[in-house]
Write a structure and sequence with these properties.
The complex is a heterodimer of chains A (247) and B (198).
Chain A: H1 8-54, H2 56-61, H3 63-75, H4 92-97, H5 99-123, E1 126-128, H6 129-137, H7 147-157, E2 165-169, E3 172-176, H8 184-196, E4 198-199, H9 201-208, H10 212-224, E5 229-231, E6 238-240
Antiparallel strand pairs in A: 1-3, 2-3, 4-6, 5-6
Helix pairs in contact in A: 5-7, 9-10
Chain B: H1 34-55, E1 59-61, H2 62-65, E2 72-73, E3 78-79, H3 82-95, E4 98-101, E5 113-116, H4 121-134, E6 141-142, H5 144-149, H6 163-175, E7 179-183, E8 189-194
Antiparallel strand pairs in B: 1-5, 2-3, 4-5, 6-8, 7-8
Helix pairs in contact in B: 4-6
Chain lengths: 247, 198
Amino acid sequence: MTMRRGVGLAAFDNHQRTAQQYSDLGSTILQTHISELTDQLLTFQAALKKFAQSHADEIRSDPVFRSEFVKMCSAIGVDPLASSSANKKGSFWAELLGSDVNDFFFELAVRIIEICRRARDVNGGLMLVEDVKGRINSVPGRPPVSQEDIVRAVNTLAPLGHGFGIVRLANKDFIRSVPQELSRDQAVAIEATQALGYISVPILRDNLAWETARCIAVLDDLVASGLVWVDEHARPKEYWTPSWIRQ
Amino acid sequence: MSTLPSLSTSSRNTSFPFPSIYSFPPFFTRQPNSQTWTSQLSLWNSLILAYCRYNRIWRIDLNTAIEWDLFNNRDINRSLKLETCKEVLDSMVMKGDAEWVSGSGSHVSKNTSAIIYWRRPEEWANIIADWIDSTGQKNTILTLYEIAEGDLSLSQDFRGIDPTILRKALDVLIRRGQAQIMKSADGEEAGVKFFGSQ
């Protein structure tokens, strides 16, 4: 299309007509793109669905494959665990990928909730992911789950308001199964227990440079929350984390 | 300092395999947090039942049992206090896993001796009834001694059973109509007659 610069009113008219032609062309290109994209998306959807269905067994039984599959989904912006409603089957992607991935993590989440509930009196609602994994995998006849699986399952619970979440302390993952979050001091104190299994007023004072009053306050806090067990025979008194109990 | 209970019947050659909680020092401190204490009570309950079952201990006399390795872990130098031990047994009694009985001797102090139900009387009743059936002893009269110490019960779980517990088991069978106390001519209790299980 050639452009001709006219003069005067005729030029103005020309400009308008040209602008309109550009706009029309733009729309046409856009329309073409949209329909091409739609075709591509439909093809993609079909391929993804087929893939998920034909690999359903592997997704269910192999933690490594499962992890790679979920990572791939995330990379392309698909969340196979997302729920648009309380109904676990409400998610578009759950429908597309088949219920296996969703089912797997849902069932795992239920088991995690049960294990944490039973241990709550012992550990105050803070439990090592490693311990939960040990308990789940000690049941024979089921394919093993990985730490990653557990963390993922817990993260699906978080937005549902069960009071569940993952807490990272001293380079280890813990599951918090009570709504109360750890205060900064509590978290630091729990981290300190991971070295010897216990802490005491002198240990906190010497290693964290806290005043005695602050040490006593956080230790009392931890006892009140049921997060530590007290050893009164020790001089000075020791406060142990139950995660130290080897199963 | 810690001792083993004296075992009247022959028992295992290996000592009781303690669970990992037994090596957790705070396990021997009465926990101040009530939820933690609830879980601690439950753990002690299970441990005591398992220990008594393994060593075939029928009753615990607090004043002597407090010296046992059950309540004293020498490896970590921790011992359960007597008052805490009593609290644990009280809770076991509440749950029906133990029962306070009067202690032996003339000095009868309240609640220092307890029989331990690592099997409940109903369970013992079933086991004894099955044994009567399988040994063809229906309609025979047996003394309590014969039941607990006779040749035919040598390999049975109730071998050497505490007489008080045996009584309670027999009471269950009597209530069910599966046994009857037989008295001799002078009105003395002679033994038990079994009718066999339904």
